[in-house]
Amino acid sequence: MNARDELDPGDITSVAHLLSAAMAAEHEAVRRYRALAEQIREAGNQEVAALFERLMEEERGHEQQLEQWAAEAGVTPDTETRGVQWRHPAVRSDHDAEAVDPARSTPYKALSFAVHNEERAFRFYAYVAAFGRDARLRDYAERLAHEELAHAALLRSMRRRAWRKERESGDRQPELDVRQIRTVQDLTHTAARIEERLEVLERRAGEDDQALAALRAACDEAFDFYDALVQRTDDEATLLEAQRLGKAMLTRIRNLPPP
Fold it and tell me: At 115, which CATH number?
């Protein structure tokens, strides 16, 4: 997206324009969360799909609140007004696509996506609250900024709980049984679980030699799984994906610090 296509908070000159932009942003959030929930549920990632559905309902509640504010202010929202544009999460670069990837997303990554966009909205409204042309506009912008800050705080709390849960479960190696892999979709889902565990172990790897040894062992086990699948599968798509994953895992192993 061209930066010039984005809504500039400096262009907000009235309460009607401000609330129209806010409602457009909430409507976009509902649309995005609904689409992500559908895609992720179709991929079999039920936990994250349920989380996005919960976030969708939260945004619907925000829409209703804004409708009440518009009635209170005596303004009619303009449905053609743009809202704050969405972006991918400001988390580690290798998580950017994974945060909304149907097979690889986790509650932590999904919540990072939501937190990032709530914080962008807060900065937008905070700017209007600081530099708006009149007191009434600044008052509504401050109320919106406060709401977004509260939403972001709640989501960060949820994200912390998700992180602790992932950390606690990270040491449990997913069952790696090549007999259970019948299609490339089966392999994709298992590879996603492997990757989740390796990410947890990588974050711990700098703590001590034992943590690094656990990471090295998990990588070795993953490579053995992919290599065994290459030898066993009769499905060409599964074979090619197992070869790709095995090659990537071997490179990963070679790049680990020496024991």
Answer: 1.20.1260.10
